[in-house]
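[Automated response] Your request has been received and processed.

Submitted sequence:
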Amino acid sequence: MAPHFVLGPGVPQQLLIQSAAAGDLPAFKKFARMLDGGKGRLKEAVEAVKNRGAGALHQAARYGRTAMCAYMVEELQVDIDAADELGHCEIVKVLLVKGANVDSSSDHGTPLHVAASKSQDGCMKILLDHHADCNKTFSTVCTPLIAAMMGRSLKCCKLLIEAGADVKGVGTFTPLIVAATEGLTDFYKCLLEGGADPDVPDKFGFLPIEIAARQNRRKDVEILLPVTSRIPSVHDWSVDGMITYVNKQVEVDPFFKIRPADLKLEGNRAYMRKDYLTAAKLYNMAIEHDPEDMTLYSNTSVCWLKMGKGMNALETAQVCRILRPDWPKGCYREGTAHMFMKDYEKACNAFLDGFKLDPANIEIENALREALKSLKASRAA
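Generated structure:
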């Protein structure tokens, strides 16, 4: 049956969709260039075209146009998640039959990262069956397992662990810390059975059990208590004892007397007086109450940088990018962390990502220029 479209006849968007469905690559390239208008952003031009919620990539996969799919994903780097939910598995199957690289990278990581973050367990199984790397990192700290947890997909997490995913994580950004922070109670069992270490603290020295107790998650504490090494200062090593201990710590900690609505303001004040550790702690506490405020992650990253802790700054900036990939400031923060660590190539990539998102941003443009200069000098040395 011929494909049915609702876009107006003859318009470039309609012709692009039709050529994708027909597998007419020369015509598709022509209309993509027409829509781009000479800006050099073919990927964005193609992704912007939708027909009843489905894009060109989905249409090509639906009609089995393997060469067309390969061109869009491998050359234009159109994101697989640009298709609608139905199209994910179709596209993955078509591309793998065509011989596409199962671990190819895009702005959102590998196909496995995308499947994990979108809770696409069907696609994930196909990718894992084709030996996708379940431990490949994106933005240094984000493994497919972390992406699945951010997407709150227990099924994807189990699939990854069964496939051999590393449950230890990178640095202090571990799956158990994520589970404790996000309240992912149902995830503990598979993580612990997979070998996750409950004795690894976060950046501020708090163990997963302490994070859970601080947030009054009793069930979480019940699960973590038997597998966590005893904390010497906790005299009553029981669920009630742990929660009581943490609550007493909170009572004597002046930070916890600050109203949640004022945490960011107090963090800003601490930053202005150059008390960067206090500022970072306050921003981190504010994140617990308002995880959607990306400026809190950005500010925390700056604090770590001011304290000379480049890896902490990088981890925080990259978490920000994972949560909000379309925010230029997150790219900028990642770039500055890479610059501090003298990884100029990665700094260039991060700044370039930010500049693509906001071409008018002078701060990012200047940072990119400096990163390119440093990269050139380092290669000449």
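Summary generated for your ticket: Residues 362-380 form the longest helix (19 residues). The chain has four domains: 1-100, 102-166, 167-252, 257-381.
If you did not submit this request, please reply to this message.
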